[in-house]
Every structure is written in structure tokens, then in C-alpha cells.
Amino acid sequence: MKYIVVLKYGEIVLKGLNRGRFELLLMKRVRSVLKKLPGKYELHNSQSTLIIRGDGDADMRNAAEKMQKVFGVVSVCIGVECEKDMEAVTRTVRENAAEFFAGAKTFKCVAKRGDKAFPFISPQICDICGGAVLETVGNIKVDVNNPEVILYIEIRDGCAFIHAGGAKGAGGMPTGSNGRGMLLISGGIDSPVAGYMTAKRGVQIDAVYFETPPYTGEAAREKVESLARVLATYTGTVYLSCISVTEIQHAIAEKCSERLFTLLLRRFMMRIAEKLAVNVGCSALITGESIGQVASQTMEALCCTDNAVSMPVFRPCIGLDKEEIVTISRRIGAFDISTLPYEDCCAVFTPKHPKLTPTIAELEEEEKKINVDELVERALAARTVKRIDGNNE
Ligand code: ATP
Ligand code: MG
Q1: Do residues 359 and 276 share a domain?
Q2: Is residue 292 domain-shared with residue 335, that is, in the same domain?
Q3: Which one of 184, 205, 238, 309 would you pick to mutate in the ligand 1 pocket, going by the greatest count of ligand atoms within 8 A of its CB?
Q4: Of the residues 133, 168, 203, the one at which a domain ends
Q5: Ligand 1 binding pocket includes 346 (Cβ within 6 Å)
């Protein structure tokens, strides 16, 4: 008798002919997480679930915890398996009762009969197992309406699986099932959340960070690397490009209207990110912008930002209030990093009175005063790339 981990996958079940492809990608991601854990594991795909079995060195609780950060998994159950035979099931319930019911005063049983040929029907399985619990555990009662513990007895194709309920998985779609996207990641709260939301839908994320040395330093870059690591914990690996925009900022500050500074810089970021995206096979840009949050995110300003590139720009935070973004940021483990106090490259030359209703025409007019293409090429040529692996690896 051994602990096993059962992963239920959600939306993939609804896929038609493509389903196999999604399952393979999910299994690939699960295997890559398991490979880094002590012990040896086997993975089986059966009846819309993945079953993980481990050898003696495997820490199944740890494995189950790691699986909660795999996109495509909706619930993670840890439990015991036994032969598909009523006597073995009852014995297993008794032997593991102390663990399943630790201190609980009420319970109920739920039987799921995946194998319809099993000679006992669900109410009989519940009756027999419930009786075994009452005999084995002192001071416990059945409460069908509001039980502290629900004991699930699943009669599956190859075995019986007994557990006390699952933890919530990350949901979404398996990483890599929906192409690649280039995230513009700053050290702030919004962009890591935007990256997470896109990654959740199966998009493999690459990231680019724009820095302004010597105004922004090593600590600011390390903060962005830590944020990229939060994303990589869900997706496996993030390739983070760092690009200096110091020369660009100086050129804008020297030649262009101060009130348009932030937007002019943002348009440079978009152009550079787009070229990088094309180079590495990403088909969209992702930013953390939300309508009206700051002067550079008014409707007019966002349209001017968009206009600098022809690649689609995804902004998953567009309709979220700051508070809602913060809730997600905390949940995914990014908030405490995002709020560390390091300098932001956009803050270096921030105008006192930015223009709230800029037009594309006036931005283009300002851009004639500097050599945009050359500045873009030079910034891109000096980029550095770092491979960031997640904590799940
Ligand atoms: P964030 O919290 O993500 O920094 P923000 O509310 O501070 O967002 P801005 O500073 O206006 O907003 O930036 C808007 C978006 O532009 C960011 O969400 C991010 O996608 C991108 N961006 C801003 N600064 C940088 C940077 N230094 N490097 C890469 N991308 C950036
Ligand atoms: Mg910012």
C-alpha cells in the first residue's frame, strides 16, 4: 500500500481531436518537475487523470505540492491505492483512518465508480467504508450535510483510490500549448501578473527588461530576475533579455518634448520588444497596462503605444483595478518581490506634467528629431540574455 498523487485536468477534457496533444504537453511538464525531485516516479494517464507513483525515496507530499503550480491541473489529490476488491478497500480505509480523520468529529463517504463492472454500487461502497470508519475511529459521526472530512473511494480502471479530497491546482492550459509571447517585465506589480495570466492559458513566456545604467543598478535587475523566477516556477524556464535604454533616454531628454517623454520611451520599448519577439519566435507582446492607471495608460496614450508596433499587444490587466491586480500578485508569490524599493527606469526622467491626450502625429513629429531605427538597433545589439529556471525545477 502506497501513497499516490492523482492530478485531475480540467478544460483539456473538453478538447476533441487535439486532446492527445494537450495531454502530452501536460505530461511533459509534470515529468520535468518530477525529474528534479528525490526518488523515482512513474506517470500514468488514465480516465482524464494523471497518476503519479513513487519509489521508496519519493516524498509524495512534496510532489503533490509542486503539482499545484502546473498549469492544466485543476486538482491535486494525495491518497492511497489498493486492489480493486471490497475487502482490500475496507482494510485500506481502516489502516489509514488515523491519517485521513486526524481529530475530525464528522465525516461522510463519497464513492465514485469509474469501473461500472465493480460488483458493489456506490451507496453500498459508502455504507461498508463508513462502517469501517465508525469502528476504527473513536468519537466520530456521520454528517452528510456539513462533514469535516469527506472520504472519497474511487473505483478506477486499474485500482481503487482512497483519499480525503484534493487541493486546488493552478488551472489553465498546459505550458506550450498556446505558443510563445514576449512579456515586457518591469520591477512593478502589474507586468508579472500580466505574464502569469497569459502563461496560465498555455503561452510559453519570454521576457524583456529595460534598464538605465547607471541610474538603475544591479539590485533592480536582480529584482526583475526574481520576478521572472516566479513565472518560471509555473512555466519551467523564462529567457530574460536585459536591454539598456540609457542612450535612448538621453536622446529623448535632449531633443524631444518633455511632456511626451514617457510615451516616446514606451514606443521605443515596444519596437525593441517586437524585434526581439520576432527573433525568438514569439507572436505577441504582453504588458501590464490597465486603462487609466497612470498618464501613460489613458486610452489615447495606449493607442499611441500600440501604434509603434504591428504585432498584437496583449494586456490581461486592462480591466482590472489595482486592488484586483494586487490580489493575484499576492496569490502567485510576486507581491513581496514587486514591492521591494528599487529604482525604475521610467522614473529617471519622468515629466512633471505628462500629456494625457497625446496624438500619434505629434509623437511621430518628435521622433523625427532623433534617429529611431539606429537607436533601436544599437540597444538590441547590446542585449544580454539569462536563462531563469523556476523554483519548481
Ligand atoms: P508595472 O507594475 O508592470 O511596472 P506600471 O503600472 O508601473 O506597471 P508603467 O511603468 O507605466 O506601469 O509600465 C507599463 C507597462 O510597460 C508595464 O506593465 C510593463 O509591461 C512595461 N514596462 C514599463 N517599464 C518597463 C521596463 N523597465 N522594462 C520592461 N517593461 C517595462
Ligand atoms: Mg512600472
Answers
A1: yes
A2: yes
A3: 184
A4: 168
A5: yes
| Final residue of a structural domain among 143, 168, 193 | 168
Residues spanned by the domain of 154: 3-168
The tens digit of pLDDT for each residue in 309-352 reads 999 999 999 999 999 999 999 999 999 999 998 776 656 677 88
Paired strand residues for 184: 208
Query: Do 194 and 65 share a structural domain?
Result: no
Neighbours of 363 (CB within 10 A): 22
Cα–Cα distance for residue pair 341/338, rounded to 1 Å: 8
- 3-class DSSP state of 252: helix
| Residues 166, 23: Cα–Cα separation, whole Å | 20
Chain segment 54-67, per-residue pLDDT in tens: 998 899 999 999 99
Full-prediction pTM beyond 0.90?
yes
Helix (H) or strand (E) run with residue 64 in it: helix 60-67
Q: Are 39 and 145 within one domain? A: yes
Residue 175 within any structural domain of the chain: no
